[in-house]
């Protein structure tokens, strides 16, 4: 078990102990000692250990802790307004006790008249809504708002590695792919308003990496905009991240060709949806949504596009969302054969194609979302911190 998991388990046990035993009881004091000990341990490794609790997920320093997914305390803490918790090396036992007491009050685990009156202001433990900036002075009772200091570098590195694994014929690393999506989701909800962090392309050969991350972010944004539940949003995010996996099989000279593709090259290119679906299904049979989306993301609503379907049928909702986000990101990016289009032009084009290339409701939702959230679209380079 990792130190982070040990801390969380100890912490949950302590909250229960504090709810049961009065001040001074040895079980209560022992539980506080244990939490304090684990906090000191983590602070010996990291300057500012920090956890985020988002829905069902627990994230430590921007990396989701997979084994704690679904931990019921994550949702309880998040509902109690504690979406982020951090401390530093100077944390004291007294502050730890103060924090646990305050938490108990917020969770209403004891009647309000028995609340302990606390004079101290916790300075070395900070907690609140996601995400206040570390290093800021926290005033007593202040509502904490700001943004996690976060770049997309690690996510881009993971996607590059994931594509390399596949190119070398190894299995699709699903845990890492899901971690990337979770981290993107954290970045998108780093402030009280939605943020759409989109990577700018610096080098042509990085297109697939930036494109997959951007499509994942846009798809999750659109899914949320259209009112889908958190589970679907995340599953669509995974599908968005994986939609072009089949491109790992395409030779780079075809993928990055400047001129028009010849028939043979076009056939290779157009095989990437089926290839992607095959890669996904061959390693993970529980990823059928991602496989379907990989297969369908170039199929138009009027039956055009590729691969061509023998019998006309409706594509999966996830494919319709990814298709829209895919085209948007592609047109907004400089490619070897054309410059990026301005946002207005892309949205105009998409509106024109509503009902023929794109599902009308989905594309109109997307256009509306981009207009409303335009100020929240953050175009960033890989090492650039996301704005607050
Ligand atoms: Fe594609
Ligand atoms: Fe794509």
């Amino acid at each position: 078990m990792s130190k982070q998991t040990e801390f969380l388990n100890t912490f949950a046990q302590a909250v229960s102990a504090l709810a049961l035993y009065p001040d001074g009881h040895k079980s209560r004091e022992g539980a506080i000692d244990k939490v304090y000990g684990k906090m000191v341990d983590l602070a010996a490794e990291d300057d500012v250990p920090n956890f985020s609790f988002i829905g069902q997920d627990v994230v430590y320093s921007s990396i989701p802790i997979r084994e704690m997914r679904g931990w019921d305390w994550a949702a309880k803490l998040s509902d109690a307004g504690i979406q982020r918790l951090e401390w530093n090396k100077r944390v004291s036992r007294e502050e730890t006790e103060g924090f646990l007491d305050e938490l108990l009050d917020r969770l209403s685990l004891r009647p309000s008249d028995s609340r302990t009156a606390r004079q101290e202001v916790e300075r070395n433990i900070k907690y609140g809504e996601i995400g206040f900036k570390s290093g800021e002075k926290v005033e007593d009772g202040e509502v904490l708002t700001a943004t996690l200091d976060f770049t997309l570098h690690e996510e881009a590195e993971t996607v590059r590695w994931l594509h390399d694994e596949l190119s070398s014929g190894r299995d699709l690393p699903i845990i890492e792919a899901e971690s990337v999506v979770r981290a993107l989701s954290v970045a998108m909800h780093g402030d009280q308003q939605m943020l759409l962090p989109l990577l700018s392309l610096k080098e042509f050969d990085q297109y697939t990496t930036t494109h997959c991350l951007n499509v994942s972010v846009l798809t999750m944004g659109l899914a949320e905009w259209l009112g889908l539940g958190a589970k679907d949003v995340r599953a669509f995010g995974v599908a968005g991240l994986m939609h072009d996996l089949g491109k790992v099989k395409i030779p780079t000279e075809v993928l990055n060709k400047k001129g028009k593709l010849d028939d043979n090259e076009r056939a290779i290119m157009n095989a990437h949806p089926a290839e992607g679906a095959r890669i996904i299904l061959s390693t993970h049979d529980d990823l059928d949504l991602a496989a379907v989306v990989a297969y369908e993301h170039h199929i138009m609503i009027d039956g055009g596009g590729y691969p061509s379907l023998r019998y006309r049928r409706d594509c999966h909702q996830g494919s319709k969302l990814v298709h829209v986000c895919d085209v948007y990101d592609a047109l907004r990016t400089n490619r070897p054969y054309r410059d990026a289009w301005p946002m207005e032009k892309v949205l105009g084009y998409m509106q024109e194609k509503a009902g023929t290339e794109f599902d009308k409701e989905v594309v109109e939702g997307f256009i509306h979302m981009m207009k409303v959230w335009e100020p929240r679209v953050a175009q960033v380079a890989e090492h650039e911190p996301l704005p607050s």
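The pocket of fe (ii) ion (ligand 1) is lined by residues 243-244, 272, 297-298 (CB under 6 Å). The radius of gyration is 24 Å.
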